[in-house]
Amino acid sequence: MDSDIRNGEVSVPLPARMDAEVVFIGRLRTPWKDRADCPRQGRDDGPECKIEVDATWRAGLAGLEAYARLDVLYWMDRSRRDLVVQNPARDDRLIGTFALRSPVRPNPIALLNVALVRVEEDGLIIRGLDCLDGTPLLDIKPNRCEFSPKAVAKPIGEET
Amino acid sequence: MDSDIRNGEVSVPLPARMDAEVVFIGRLRTPWKDRADCPRQGRDDGPECKIEVDATWRAGLAGLEAYARLDVLYWMDRSRRDLVVQNPARDDRLIGTFALRSPVRPNPIALLNVALVRVEEDGLIIRGLDCLDGTPLLDIKPNRCEFSPKAVAKPIGEET
Fold this sequence. Notes:
Two copies of one chain form a homodimer. The first copy, chain A, is mainly beta. In chain A, 0% of the residues lie in helices and 33% in strands. Chain A has a single domain, classed as Beta Barrel (Elongation Factor Tu (Ef-tu), domain 3). Chain A is built from no helices and ten strands. The first copy, chain A, has a six-stranded antiparallel barrel. Chain A is globular, with a radius of gyration of 18 Å. Chains A and B meet through β2, β5, β7, β8 and β10 of A and β2, β5, β7, β8 and β10 of B. β2 (20-22) of chain A pairs antiparallel with β2 of chain B, so a sheet runs across the interface.
């Protein structure tokens, strides 16, 4: 947990009660054991990493082999959540949290678009991760640009 | 809540305890009051919609005016979460949950990339939403392709 506040940063009180709960469905396996070692943004020419999917959810991978790219959502479990204005460059430029892709945000959900290398029995081999080894997985979605809805002509609002 | 299971769909038990909590930071205001009316995927030529941001978090919008597109994460609070294999076309094609962009998934977090029209005092006017009026907001991020890290040359893994 990074607990220091930089010059000009604004902390707000988090509500006593949260609104909904998430379940961790797997873990991201990367070469990086320390935040200082993580690349700032994942790159397609980065190392192969693994998305380990828990046994309960593995049947949900069926069909992903058709996609070249995926959206991956993960939980940045070491980030503080109370800063609404940040000072990322440690200078006099203050920037709103929603205008940054910093892990510090009210809901520390990271979003990466990664290249799929192959589907394995217990997960996916991908390139483009940037996070610590062991980071909790929230979701995997097929790349929006490659995806077309599978449902029949819209009777109910089924797919986004 | 859509509680019917279609032919071949597979339900799994959700864990008794979840792993982390999210906070709703605002609401999405759209013209659609019923799921049947929502478009299946948001379009840039769709109607202007509003992202209402709660007062606590509004200072976090500063700087977003520099971006043409945004990633918006929201919580699909009416979706069941226990299906790992789905039958979106109501035929014999079964597809894993992670190979769909269906709202039915273990963590019902939707991800949209939308066009920013303007920043207002209490939120954002955008195009490209597809969800029900009143849907809870989780996060706003600047578009990855337009964004470059604001921090100084990487000493610690600060931004994703």
